Hints:
- The complex is a heteropentamer of chains A (175), B (230), C (397), D (302) and E (602).
- Chain A has 175 residues and is an alpha+beta fold.
- Chain A has a single domain, classed as NADH:ubiquinone oxidoreductase Nqo5 subunit (Beta Polymerase, domain 2), CATH 3.30.460.
- Chain A has helices spanning 2-11, 34-44, 102-112, 144-152, 163-171; strands spanning 14-21, 24-29, 49-58, 63-71, 78-86.
- The radius of gyration of chain A is 22 Å and the shape is elongated.
- The model of chain A has no long low-confidence stretch (mean pLDDT 86).
- In chain B, β5, α5 (121-133) and β6 form a beta-alpha-beta unit.
- Chain B has a single domain (59-219), classed as Rossmann fold, CATH 3.40.50.12280.
- Residues 1-14 of chain B have low confidence and may be disordered.
- With 230 residues, chain B is an alpha/beta fold.
- Chain B contains nine helices and seven strands; from the N terminus they run αββααβαββαβαβααα.
- Chain B is 33% helix and 13% strand.
- In chain B, α3 packs antiparallel against α7 (180-195).
- Chain B has helices at 15-18, 40-43, 59-70, 86-90, 121-133, 146-149, 180-195, 201-207, 209-219; strands at residues 26-29, 35-38, 72-75, 101-104, 112-116, 139-143, 171-173.
- Chain C folds into two domains: 3-67, no CATH class; 85-318, Cytochrome-c3 Hydrogenase, chain B (Orthogonal Bundle).
- Chain C is built from 15 helices and six strands.
- Chain C has a three-stranded antiparallel sheet.
- The longest helix of chain C has 29 residues, at 120-148.
- Chain C is globular and about 75 Å long.
- Chains in contact: A-B, A-C, A-E, B-C, B-D, B-E, C-D, C-E, D-E.
- Chains C and E meet through α3, α6 and α7 of C and α1, α2 and α3 of E.
- β7 of chain B pairs antiparallel with β5 (110-111) of chain E.
Amino acid sequence: MKDLIKDIESRFKTSDYIQKLDHLAFITVEKEQAISLVTYLRDYRKYAGLTLLTAVDWLEDGVFQLTYLLNNPTDYTEIGVRVMIDRDNATMESSHHLWENMMTYQRELREMFGIDFPGSPRIEEDFILEGWDNMPPYRRDFDTKKYAEETYFPRPGRESNDPATYMKSKMYPND
Amino acid sequence: MEKDMNKHKFEDLDVDKFLAPENEKRSVLAPDGSIVEVDPLKDYFCQDRPEVQKPRSGPVENFLNWARAESLWVLGFGTGCGSIEIPPLTTPRFDMFRYGVQMRATPRQSNVFVISGYLSVKTLKRAIRAYEQMPSPKYIIALGSCTINGGMYYDSYNTINRLDAYMPVDVYIAGCMPRPEALLAGFAKLKELIKAGKAEKANEYAENFDWYKTNQKKIIKDWNMPDFNW
Amino acid sequence: MDLKKLFQMNPDRSLYPEMGEDGKPIIDLSSHKFLKIWQGPQHPGITGNMSLELTVSGDEIVESKTHVGYLHRGFEKLMERRKFIQCFPTCIRMCVAEPDPNEYILAAAIEDLAGIEVPETAQWLRTLALEMARLQILLRSVPGQGGTFALGLGYQWGNYIRDLILDRFEELTGGRVYHMYIIPGGVRGLLPDGFKKRMEENLKLVDEFVINIDNLMYNNSVFKQRAKGLAVIPKDWIDTYGVYGPTARAAGVMRDVRKTHPYLKYAELDFEPFTTTESDVYARSRVRWHDLQTTVDLIRQIMAKMPDGGEIRAETPNVLHWRIPKGETYQKCESSRGEYGMYMVTDGSDKPRRVNLKGPSYTHANALLDKLLINANIADTAAIMVSLATCPPEIER
Amino acid sequence: MDYSITKFLWTLLGLFIVLNWGMLMSSTMRRIGARVAGRYGIPWYQPWIDLVKLYSLRTHLTHGTMFYIGPVFRLMGGVGIFLFLPMVYGNPHWSNYSFSGDLVLILYFQFFGMLGMALGAGEGGQPFSAIGISRGLSQFATIEVPMTLAVISIAIQYQTLSISDIVAAQQGGFMTWTLWTNPLATGAAMLSLLGAFGHSPFNLVKAPNEIPIGPPTEYHGTFLGVLRTNGAILHVAEAALFMNLFFGGAGSWFELIIKTFLIYFWSVFVGTVFPRFRIEQSVRWFLKVPTILGILAIIIFL
Amino acid sequence: MNIKDVLSPFTAWKRVARDPVTVKDPFNDRPGADRYRGFHKNDVEACIGCGTCEDICENEAIDLVPFKDPISGDSGLRPSIDYGRCCWCALCVDVCTTNSLTLSNEYTWVATDPDEFIFTPGVDKKDWDENEKGWKKPEGNYEFYGLKRVEMEHLHPEERSDSFIEMVKGYSKEQAQKEADRCVECGICTATCPAHMGIPEYIKAIRNDDIEEGLRVLYETNPLPEICGRICTHKCESVCSIGHKGDPLSIRWLKRYIADQVPSDKYKDILDTNEIENNDKKIAIIGAGPSGLTAAHYLVKMGYSVTIFEQFEAAGGMMRYGIPEYRLPYESIDKDINYILSLGVDIKYNTRIGADITLDQLGKDFDAVFSGTGLHLGRSTGIPGSDNEHVYYSTDYLRKITAGEEIEVAESIVVIGGGNVAMDITRSLARMQKVKYGKANIIATSLEKEDVMPADREEVVEAREEGAIINPGWAPQSIEIKDGVPTGLHVVECNSLFDETGRFNPQCSMDVKEFWPGVQIIESIGQGMDLSYISEEFKENMAFSPRGRVETNDYFQTGVKWFFMGGDIIEGPDVIHGIANGHKAAIGIDNFIQGIDFKAAK
């Protein structure tokens, strides 16, 4: 895979190359060149299969990381193409024309992360959630436990004690 | 969550926000050329509230209760992971048919609704609808811990914690996942209740209909059905 | 009058329904020629809790849209607020029918990122658990294909033997459906006494079942009539639609992680996954039938080769505050449905930053199913779904 | 013909016996099917309990007048066949209202129930009901073809349209049954019988995992009770019809029970081990072998 | 169409004659497997309520509910399980520190009331409590946390047996983090620690490699971490929940690790004590021992002007004069003490209360007085011959060693006593013998048998490694004197120390005798207090227990309101009690001066 990475690095603005396993590498590419790189890999480097497309929310850095994981059906290697996109203006070029199943991933990302892919088919339709009017739930700043407790009110009547605090209150309350 | 909260706040609900296009009011050109106004929410759905049908007493009712208990028709709606343990019950190892429990494919012909585990909000909407379509007397068996207090998914934004706030439950079965035997024990318990005339949760649902509906609509924002679609 | 055309069994439908420029069928619902039917979620012909929005013209489907989300629990979100060890019970429930690959890919991802080497015995036991899981699900899904055509008998037989395999699971792991056996770092117990003997007895039943189901289903004229030629997946769809596992092997493309990226002890085992080229429902079902035999053979090989005792778990940091350095990985294994993978990102804290599970159903049940159902008869929907082995909880997680 | 009240009461008694036998037969068949699968199956008395339960449900909601009438029509179909069918040969009490042209009437009644069902289920508004009905009607039309051909064949053979006469013509021993005297017609009829009883591979009407569960999707409670009552009667009546036409009739209730059981078992025997056809496959199937057999049966006797 | 394809399915009918394979009585015929994960069982007697089960439960299904009053090492809480949450993963069983929590193989629980599914296993009786089968923690090397302690490196016995160099090397960062990783953060140790230190918190700080936070946690309750980290009696380790099935955590070494990592010049920055607001109240402290120093530290941090009166020429009290250097180097003592002094504490060395200045005078000059004078007097066994001049008290000897005075070291020595002080003197003298004679010839004995010896186990082991003979379980009878010089000690076997009522009443077998030769006898059977500085009229206002101990209230206030006492004279003897007393007395003094009401002296 080393040759491939050299080739990519010479053609595209990439960084942060990691060879995770023998058959698995990750590389970061600039947002503008992402789709060209993915297309290049698909058409010229035999990475014809899309294993997955997903996002990681780096809330602290204010970016979403999109990972296009492609696989090569001939030598069974995989390459993960990372793209950092701005969290406040989460829009990415759609690549539904490359793979038939890409639009499903893009619909999910749109719904769960709020990342828009203009032009992707059925992108506006609900995918998993129905009637969701809150923040996209996979974003890091969405607190699922708080939401669940407020919305679905767990059964009351339970309370717990911390051993150290309880022992303090019973054994040496004044110290 | 007091049950005397028997008032219905319609103004809270922003029905239009999620109304599906096919449920919008529209005018339709009939084959004869006339124009017909259609309001699907009124025209396509049943508008009656469920009624309380007081159980009678006496030997006849006892006999009927016995028959109801011995002929449990279960709706084949696997709402959660618990549905994986339904097929073993219909197959040789456990064979629930010998206890008079049978599967039905349509809610209209079912008496027992096995809520098999967690309910996502999206499924809850369908489950309520299926439940309301079932003929009374009808029973709900809540299978698994998730129906009792959220179970594994207590902190999930998409699954309910307590089933009893949305649907009246007759029998709970703890477990994750409960063995098929536990489900059989649940059926046995339900039979016991029916024979004793204590399984009247369908009437409880009708009595506290507004309370249940308020709870349901609090979380099902995309209601998209008339209130009384029973 | 073209008599030949009149008596043609399967009329040429390649131009019907008419497709628009965007690849969507042109459908005018107000023409009264089309009917919209929702199949599921409450429908016996749906594999699990999902639904299909079918537009039919007569008995023929002209457009299909998969709707999922009925089983969405937000695992990936929940795991972001659980410690690594706490992800372990959570992760299993992603695909209920075959829980062990879930356990394995989580453990593999954590071990890969934390740099933990799993002991030899534990690796053998993991291989055994994975193959047993494949066996139990194939005992359901092989005759299940007949079930979609209303041949419920094989399903009854298969499910009985599956229950016996689940008994073995209960002995080995303590759980019937949720085994929670492949824990990060190792496994949770050695083989109990007499396990191999009881397993061998069950495997004999499976051998018998393999012959019986061959007689009942695969040599059944009606089954052949219905399944052959149904929902053919051309070879060039494999990559564009993302087709995995037995479904791809039925189209003549070798897709089996056990062979392409041997994990655990698969490199030491002797097996050859079955491939064929017909690529219809019958071929896919037949591939699974061959897989069933392969699995039985593999379990026998594993039980013969595995050591009797040994360490079952590698030493890990205290699980209550286990931190894993920043990194990302993609780990996969072969489930009965195909490549089952997990993409995990860690940020150095004691909880995963992001977990993404990718099951074959994600592509099979969405893009591929929507495409295959066009021009299919409404009666064949369930059969096509089952032949793609869709498992809704792994789509929406 | 005897129209006395006594006759009517005997017929009612016969109906009662047929109803109960029908239910026992259905539970027995299910138990046999369960045995092949390796389990016990429902208790033999389960159909009675189910029936009591169905009639005792508290909710009855209707989608309109035809929704009410549908099950009644369906019941009329079953009872109609029974009424004009001689059950036990040579016994005036059990010959019901059989008359010289009853064969034609019975063929009509066979279709009558299906039509009634179509009207009622259509009113239910369920798209699956509609699909089930269209399947049912098209399949039944093709079932009728070999069936009618076979009936015509034996009508020509025995030169009568009276079932009693046909039964009478078969008396005189095992070898005088139509089964032996007209095997082609019997074959055509027995194959079409597979469709009439609605077991696999011809159970397309109710097809649970395709169109759950077809026409009766919306039916519940008493309506469903009526449908199931009809089912029990219809199965025995149809089996008795075939028994009368091809298997020498019955000299006693015992003989009737044995023969109807075996005839019904034939459809179970096939249905247990075969999957279901698609509708066009089913239609084509009936129009091939059974129809050809039926045509041959007629040609032979022409 | 192939005719075979029509006929072969009918072969299925051959099964019709077979018996069904159904489980006949599903409720009884098929109990859960041996390892089945069913409902919880808990051995409430073995359970200590540590709450690790609650911590690991990803479903928040487990609550800790009160079961009994807490005692040292048992929080008195027991897990209560909500089966509306439980997912039967049994991680709680695997993580249980006492192995008390198990699962039964019972799996059926059906109820009509959803609130019924909460229960406390072992407390609420259930059908399956007697069920032997079910999930237990897997055997073998299956542990969720390390059970083996990270070995502390010691000087090799041969290296240390002739020198007073500190023998414990201390943890490296990796070792400390590995050891800290074993902690399950239950917090049970906190109650047992007399000073109630935030043990889990500072261990967590080590794990997070946040030494500064660790130091801050230490100084919340303990201003002598360097000292405590070396010589604390670590009662916390005896109740450590990990200790129930493995080695307890080395809490003491971890504390030392934190203190060792921080150079003394950074203390003020880390602890934010560069600027302290002063008020005009003055406090006098008698004795610069652990309790006095602790009280001084907290009082000075509260803004008081503190003056310590110390009778010797260096601060530290017993820590300096009672503990040999190989266990507690003087640099470590100085590091802690210098920090406290640097906060503005005034110390007057060589000033003895009663002799140089009276207590009454202190009371007049200062707003409050704290006394932590400790136990300095040796105690005699009183056996025949113990009044010989070659029979010494260990306290005197240890002090002399520290002060560098010339002392007599005989060729053969017998030590009477089995406590830590006895071990200290034994090991010190063994070293000196080694230097002087080339080999150690010293024997120590105690009334208690080896398993109940009061000395720390490791002290005994190390003493033996260094060549001393430790022979416990003997009662000294008499010292044989020949020509005014002891020749040895007569002992008889001692079988038990206490009678049924718990009173001290040693039972000896007089016929099992031993004679241990030794020309020098050291008595080390405890120490006494010297309260001579308190005048008789003063004492009238104070309360004393029947056994002669001063009685104080919870804040160590004596009957004389401005006079507080603490340390070994009240509780102990050990360092950590002194620290605890000092801290609490400081709070008490603060309250007293500010006029906040607290419970008056008993």
